[in-house]
Structure prediction request, 367 residues.
Amino acid sequence: MPRRILLSALCLAFLFSVSSAEDPLRCFVCGKKIKGAYIEYEGKIVCTQACLGALLPKCGTCGQPVSAGKGLKGEYLKHNGRYYCSQECFEQSLPKCGTCGKPVKGGLKDQEGKLYCCRDCYRQSLPKCAICGQPMEAWTEIADHRYCQACAKLPRCLGCQLPGAEVELDDGRTICKKCLEGAVVDQAEAQRIFDQVRKDMADRLKLKTEHEIGLKLVDARELSGVVGHRTMHENGYYHYKGTVEQGSGRVLSAEYRIYVLSHLSPERLRDVAAHELAHDINQARYPNVAGAKHKQAVEGFAQYLSAVMNKHWGQEALNTDKLNVVDPDYVKGFQKFLELDRDGGMKAVLDHMAKLNSADARSKNRR
Prediction:
């Protein structure tokens, strides 16, 4: 707290004396000869109150001598080694509240060093929960959004992956109203997007098959039934069933089908369709690269081709998700193909798949 001091306590032991004509004095400030009364302050002689003010400490805010400031005559304040002529000037020197702008006398300080005059102002400065809007001293951050502990535990939307999904689907998945507005729930719309993806991949990658592929939009329960187990991270599934003539290797019959979850965004559906169509390309060009033995290569190849297409479509942000998939084979496989691409582009990727396919064929022949 500042100390309020009487001006006389500033060692202003003014000695009012009279200069004699025989021994004239000069003012320490203005240099004029002093005739008659003068003032002595800390060993210095001055002729007037005005010259005395030039010797006195200056107010740290307004710059006036403490004797000529805004305060009561004969009083000043001292705080942290600085002088102030009045309470008003002292308060102007104080740090301001980060919320209301009032001078802070004590108050609260946040982790960034900002000061607040009261707890209400401090709470107004806190981040607000993206759902309930309450100020938070601790929070959970998800995709650049901040949530209080309670709201962070709310059901996640299958689309944006943020908590607070308001709608529960029949298969148990949850989706927010915003994502629901643009979700693909119609088979005809899904087919249109799928056909465009297949055309784009043929044009952009020069990779295609002539297989007649059936597309089916399904819910999570039906997809789990097709896959054979409950799936938590898969949004689609590629199904191939074929009969091959022994000896000649000629394909006698083949069935190709791709299942895609309903209620995905058009962008996510494109990504999933590209991934599953990559499996179809894999089956046609590299049939020996299959099964659990080659899971990393199979899934990594599909993740890589869909990532290339996402970049082409201007939805490259979806590729970040590919490095956060629960199944490590997807992640490791994708990273392997990204490394191949950095070293030699698409040619290096296709050469790698061809090499794996040939090596496995030779292994089967030896058996």
